[in-house]
Amino acid sequence: MHNDELRARLLAEAVAAVESRGVGVLSVREIAHAAATSTTAVYSLFGNKEGLVRAVLVHAFDSFAAQQAGGDDLTALGTAYVAWALEHPRLYELMFTDALSNVEPTPESQAAAARAIAPLRDGVRQAIEAGFFRPADVDTVVASLWAQVHGMAMLLLANHFPTGADPVAAAMAVIDGWRATPPSADQSD
How many angstroms separate the CA atoms of 22 and 183, rounded? Predict the structure, then answer.
């Protein structure tokens, strides 16, 4: 029976395999065996290996977005971002290194990526509207802050973050650059 329960089981096995060994070694046969089914089920439910990888990618973006849900400020969002990346390095790699997956984007995967960045976009929009950030294009500010936390996550994952550097202070320097008024020495978030 190729039903939703089997699809969920196959996806869970695929996510676990990618998390433990990376997308490069994902095998349809191995996933089918781990889920106690046949490769026919994988092809029936996901179309092909690319479809299975795409489902893992969508799962990763949704998990990433869930980690950030409820973040009450931009600092909390950045912290959640980096924490998720460090907890799920191979899924993070899949999300942001297309060359590894050889998966063409689809409306579903693009929508999942948009859901993942939505909390940051909403936080930036609110910060601009509240006058905390200076007037600016929301997407420009999003790109600036996103580049900061993405770069930080990548450096931390690669063990190349400068020894003795404070990741929070580094992130706050970028946030401070967008503030409507420069922070005073005694001002904190």
Answer: 42
Q: Give start and end residues of each alpha helix (H) in the chain.
A: 4-21, 28-34, 39-46, 49-68, 74-87, 89-96, 98-101, 107-129, 138-157, 167-178
Domains of the chain with CATH codes: 57-178 (1.10.357.10)
Report, as an integer, the average pLDDT of 32-40: 96
- Taking 90 as the threshold, does the pLDDT of residue 182 lie above it? no
Report the pLDDT averaged over residues 121-146.
95
What average pLDDT does range 113-128 have in this prediction?
Answer: 94
User: Distance between alpha carbon 5 and the CA centroid of its chain, in Å?
Assistant: 25
> In angstroms, what CA-CA distances link 100 with 39, 55, 92, 97, 145?
22, 15, 11, 6, 25
